[in-house]
Specification:
Structural class: alpha+beta
Number of domains: 1
Order of helices and strands: HEEEEEEHEEEEEE
Distance between the termini: 117 Å
Largest sheet: 5 strands, antiparallel
Number of strands: 12
C-alpha cells in the first residue's frame, strides 16, 4: 500500500515564508539601489552635456565679439560688432551674459529690433564711460522693449567669470561653471579670446578716462 505524502508542518511553513521574504527584500533592495544609481548616472550625464553646451555657446559669443566694455564676477558686457560701421557702440550691438543665482540660470540679453522705422530712434550710441557698470548695462537692456533674453543653461549652481586684462582692454575671458545638484554636480572651466578685438581703438587719458577712437567718448 502506497505511503501518503507528508505535508509541511506549520513551523516549516513559517520558516519557508520567512526565508522567501528575506530573499524578496534583498532582491528589492538591490533593484532600488540599481535604479537609484542609474538615475544618478543619467543626472550626471545631463549635467555634463549642459555644462559643455553652455561653455561652447559662451566661447562662440566671446570669439565673435570685438570689445568688452565692462564685466564683474557674474556678468560680461560685450560689444558684439560694429554692425552699422559708425565706429561707435550702439545699443543694438551690445550683449550681456549673466548668471541669475536665484533662478540658477545662465542668460544672454541682447537687443533685437524689428524692421520698423523705430529702429533708428531706439538705437543710441554709448561712450565707454557710460558702460563701466555691467549691472547697469544689464538693467538698461532689460528695460528695453526690444530686449531678447536667451537661456544658455539651467540648473547652474555656481558661476565665476574673470577677464584679462581689465575692461575695456580685456581680450581673454575665463569661466568656471557648476551645473547640477548633489551627486549630479559637475564643475568645468574654459577660456575664450576675442577673435578681432578693438582694444587698439581704446585710448586712456592720464586721469584714467577711456575713449573709443573714431567713436563716442
Amino acid at each position: 500500500m502506497a505511503r501518503r505524502a507528508r505535508g509541511l508542518t506549520l513551523s516549516e511553513m513559517l520558516v519557508t515564508l520567512a526565508v522567501v521574504s528575506v530573499i524578496a527584500l534583498a532582491v528589492a533592495g538591490v533593484a532600488v539601489a540599481l535604479s537609484a544609481a542609474d538615475a544618478a548616472a543619467d543626472t550626471y550625464r545631463e549635467s555634463i552635456r549642459t555644462a559643455h553646451a553652455a561653455l561652447a555657446r559662451i566661447s562662440r559669443l566671446v570669439r565673435s565679439s570685438i570689445l568688452i566694455p565692462s564685466a564683474d564676477s557674474q556678468r560680461l558686457v560685450l560689444w558684439t560688432g560694429d554692425d552699422n560701421g559708425n565706429g561707435a557702440i550702439n545699443l543694438g550691438e551690445l550683449a550681456v551674459l549673466s548668471w541669475d543665482e536665484g533662478e540658477e540660470k545662465l542668460l544672454v540679453r541682447e537687443i533685437v529690433f524689428d524692421e520698423s522705422w523705430q529702429y533708428w530712434y531706439c538705437n543710441p550710441t554709448f561712450s565707454l564711460s557710460q558702460l563701466v557698470s555691467a549691472s547697469a548695462v544689464e538693467q538698461m537692456l532689460s528695460g528695453s522693449q526690444y530686449c531678447q533674453t536667451s537661456l544658455l543653461a539651467s540648473d547652474v549652481t555656481g558661476f565665476e567669470l574673470q577677464v584679462s586684462p581689465a575692461p575695456p582692454l580685456s581680450t581673454t575671458v575665463t569661466v568656471k561653471l557648476t551645473v547640477g545638484q548633489t551627486s549630479g554636480t559637475i564643475t568645468v572651466n574654459s577660456g575664450a579670446t576675442l577673435r578681432a578685438p578693438r582694444v587698439s581703438n581704446v585710448l586712456i587719458t592720464m586721469d584714467g578716462e577711456c575713449y573709443l577712437e573714431n567713436g563716442s567718448h
